[in-house]
């Protein structure tokens, strides 16, 4: 071999080594630089397991700050099967404590997986019993437990939380705000997949934001109490009630029966119990819809309250179909048409109004479109365009058939009349706030549109007051207050015959109080009650019972005004003064002796307004000392009253009867 051949071979070998070294260097650079993050994650998955920890959900409060849904710290039980000693022994000890079938526990203990959740969110007492077993392979990780302290109260508004987050109601609609940011825990393991370390927190969960509702817990309770009693008494298929503030669109109460307990929502007889039918299930409104017709006709000048309409002795035939009244009527004023809920009179007004104008007003009142209240599953109802109407559509729509609405749409439309013709967007959330209680987002009242003029709204209000005072809505009256409203009795379409059934269908009453200064508008609906057949006898009394409680709770004084001489005595903050003030009559609450003389009522614990209202009919002069609630009175309760007597009331803050 010549020196030249040797040098050539050395150069070739050096080149091969250089290429190999360069390739190795490039491969190392590719793995350690370009693929570093991906390979690091792969290695982490091989030697550890990441467990997601749910954050504590934010609370849900009512408009006064009372808790409707809260979360409390608890623990979830997991198993590391390869670390478990004797699965048979552990199963026998563990299954009775957890209340699980032994087969299910045994399967988890002998699983080939490295980490198994056995039971999530254990009650503290159960977790303590499991921990006392001191069995290897069992461990706990912190997780929040969702609680609904008022059980069924406002269940359909709140919804409930499942393992993966909110599933219904506000829990679902605001899941992003309530859920917070999950945390992470790491479980270490060796090359064979066996756990070598106990789980430890890697990232702490961040609590979710809270939600404040427009719901008032007290009004909600009163509404549910009366609705539940009526639901049971009438044997109705279902029942619902919605209370709205027409000035702001805020939902004050929303109640349904049957209901469920969100703490144990899986125990409900059917998933239908979870559905919020106030927004999801449209129905034909029946005679309550005559108010929408009346608003359109009055606004367009088609009819005036005193105009006479002939009732055709209780029946009218259109397109070979005869529609009957519940009673034979002759001549009626338009006010009397609504007052007596005449079908014939309403149909004649609808025909005079015309399909295009009627459709325009129905749409303006919000029918055929979702209200945007923010609850999941909201229906638009059914309102077909005039081009798809038959010859019978306009007459039947004039009496609330061939159109379907949700309960929230209907109560919102009546709220527009109560609010001087301005339709407000209904809302059920006031604000969201962070874990420190700071407001994050506020939902302000939102006017949608001016549907009718204030003058038309006032005219229609006076007609609807007469409906309650001397018409079909008399059972909705509340003594001392003017109520405006309308009854509804809607038959249901029989799917077999394609005709309206004569059996009781949807019975309702919707109205507001006080009529001229409304504080609430409310709809009550009973679906297929077995013991009543008219909205006036089924829904109106429920409306009255709930309304009385709401007005009392809101401290809305009745309309009867009597003068009273009031003398305020000196307090440390103010000098004495003598004034004459109007006091509205509520009730005397005075004892009446056998001879007819009155005794002094018991005023202890009352607010000043309530005390003065009770004294108003007795025509006494009143001396007032202090502020707050009545703590002392003279004369004492039950003492006889004589002419010229002065009642002396001492008030102090924070006292209640």
Largest sheet: 7 strands, mixed
Low-confidence stretches: 190-197, 569-596
What would you call the structural class?
A: alpha+beta
Distance between the ends:
122 Å
**Beta-strand percentage?**
25-35%
Shape: extended
CATH C-level class of the largest domain: Alpha Beta
Q: Residue-averaged pLDDT, rounded?
A: 84
Helix content: 25-40%
Walk me through the topology.
Blueprint: H1 3-34, H2 36-47, E1 48-53, E2 60-61, E3 67-79, H3 87-98, H4 102-109, E4 116-122, H5 124-133, E5 138-147, H6 155-158, E6 160-162, E7 165-168, H7 169-173, H8 175-179, E8 183-188, E9 200-203, E10 210-213, H9 217-234, E11 238-245, E12 250-257, H10 277-280, H11 290-299, E13 308-310, E14 315-318, E15 321-324, E16 331-333, H12 334-339, H13 343-353, H14 355-364, H15 393-398, H16 407-418, E17 422-424, E18 429-433, E19 439-442, E20 447-450, H17 454-470, E21 484-490, E22 493-494, E23 499-500, E24 506-513, E25 520-527, H18 535-538, H19 540-553, E26 561-568, E27 577-584, H20 608-615, E28 621-625, E29 629-634, E30 646-652
Parallel strand pairs: 2-10, 26-28, 28-30
Antiparallel strand pairs: 1-8, 2-3, 3-4, 3-5, 6-7, 8-9, 10-18, 11-12, 11-25, 13-16, 14-15, 17-20, 18-19, 21-24, 22-23, 24-25, 26-27, 29-30
Helix pairs in contact: 3-4, 3-5, 9-19, 11-13, 11-14, 11-17
Folded structure, characterized:
By secondary structure, the protein is of the alpha+beta class. The chain has three domains: 50-213, Penicillin-binding protein 2a (Domain 2) (Alpha-Beta Complex), CATH 3.90.1310.10; 218-262 and 276-553, DD-peptidase/beta-lactamase superfamily (Beta-lactamase, 3-Layer(aba) Sandwich), CATH 3.40.710.10; 561-652, no CATH class. Helix content is 32%, strand content 25%. The chain has 20 helices and 30 strands. The strands form nine sheets. Strands 2, 3, 4, 5, 10, 18 and 19 form a seven-stranded mixed beta sheet that branches. Strand 24 and strand 25 (520-527) form a beta hairpin. Helix 3 packs antiparallel against helix 5 (124-133), helix 11 crosses helix 13 (343-353) and helix 11 packs across helix 14 (355-364). It is extended, with a radius of gyration of 35 Å. The protein starts with a helix and ends in a 5-residue tail after the last strand.
């Amino acid at each position: 071999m010549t020196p030249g051949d040797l040098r050539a071979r050395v150069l070739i070998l050096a080149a091969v080594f250089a290429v190999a070294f360069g390739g190795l260097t490039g491969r190392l650079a590719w793995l350690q630089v370009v693929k570093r993050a991906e390979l690091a994650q792969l290695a982490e998955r091989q030697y550890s397991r990441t467990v997601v920890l749910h954050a504590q959900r934010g609370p849900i409060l009512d408009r006064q700050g009372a808790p409707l849904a809260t979360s409390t710290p608890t623990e979830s039980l997991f198993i590391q099967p390869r670390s478990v000693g004797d699965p048979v022994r552990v199963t026998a000890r563990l299954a009775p404590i957890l209340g699980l079938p032994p087969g299910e526990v045994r399967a988890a203990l002998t699983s080939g997986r490295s980490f198994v959740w056995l039971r999530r969110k254990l009650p503290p007492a159960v977790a303590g019993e499991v921990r006392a077993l001191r069995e290897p392979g069992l461990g706990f990780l912190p997780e929040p437990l969702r609680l609904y302290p008022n059980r069924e109260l406002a269940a359909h508004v709140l919804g409930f939380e499942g393992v993966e987050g909110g599933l219904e109601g506000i829990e679902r609609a605001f899941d992003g705000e309530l859920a917070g940011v999950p945390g992470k825990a790491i479980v270490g393991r060796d090359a064979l997949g066996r756990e070598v370390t106990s789980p430890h927190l890697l990232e702490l969960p961040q609590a979710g934001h809270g939600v404040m509702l427009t719901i008032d817990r007290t009004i909600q309770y009163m509404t549910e109490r009366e609705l539940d009693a009526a639901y049971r008494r009438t044997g109705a298929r279902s029942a619902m009630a919605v209370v709205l503030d027409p000035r702001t669109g805020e939902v004050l109460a929303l109640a349904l029966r049957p209901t469920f307990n969100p703490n144990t929502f899986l125990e409900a007889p059917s998933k239908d119990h979870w559905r919020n039918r106030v927004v999801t299930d449209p129905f034909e409104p029946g005679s309550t819809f005559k108010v929408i017709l009346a608003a359109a006709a009055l606004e367009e000048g088609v009819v005036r309250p005193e105009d006479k309409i002939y009732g055709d002795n209780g029946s009218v035939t259109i397109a070979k179909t005869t529609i009957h009244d519940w009673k034979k009527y002759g001549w009626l004023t338009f006010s009397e048409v609504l007052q007596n809920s005449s079908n014939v009179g309403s149909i004649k007004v609808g025909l005079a109004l015309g399909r295009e104008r009627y459709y325009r007003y129905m749409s303006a009142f919000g029918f055929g479109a979702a209200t945007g209240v923010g609850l999941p599953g909201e229906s638009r109802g059914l309102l077909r365009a005039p081009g798809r109407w038959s010859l019978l559509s306009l007459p039947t729509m004039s009496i609330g058939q061939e159109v379907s609405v949700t309960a929230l749409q209907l109560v919102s439309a009546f709220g527009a009349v109560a609010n001087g013709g301005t339709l407000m967007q209904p809302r059920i959330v006031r604000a969201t706030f962070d874990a420190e209680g700071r407001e994050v987002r506020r939902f302000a009242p939102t006017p949608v549109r001016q549907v009718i003029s204030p003058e038309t709204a006032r005219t229609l209000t006076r007609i609807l007051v007469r409906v309650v005072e001397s018409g079909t809505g008399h059972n909705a009256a509340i003594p001392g207050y003017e109520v405006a409203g309308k009854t509804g009795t809607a038959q249901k379409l029989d799917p077999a015959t394609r005709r309206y059934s004569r059996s009781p269908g949807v019975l309702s009453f919707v109205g507001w109080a006080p009529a001229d200064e409304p504080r609430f508008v409310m709809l009550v609906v009973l679906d297929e009650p077995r013991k009543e057949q008219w909205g006036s006898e089924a829904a109106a009394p429920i409306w009255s019972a709930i309304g009385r409680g709401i007005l009392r709770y809101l401290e809305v004084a009745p309309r009867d005004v009597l003068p009273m001489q009031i003398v305020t005595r000196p307090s440390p903050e103010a000098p004495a003064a003598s004034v004459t003030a109007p006091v509205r009559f509520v009730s005397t609450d005075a004892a009446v002796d056998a001879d007819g003389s009155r005794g002094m009522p018991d005023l202890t614990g009352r607010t000043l307004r309530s005390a003065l209202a009770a004294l108003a009919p007795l025509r006494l002069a009143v001396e007032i000392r202090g502020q707050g609630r009545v703590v002392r009175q003279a004369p004492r309760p039950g003492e006889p009253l004589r002419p010229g007597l002065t009642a002396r009331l001492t008030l102090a803050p924070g006292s209640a009867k």
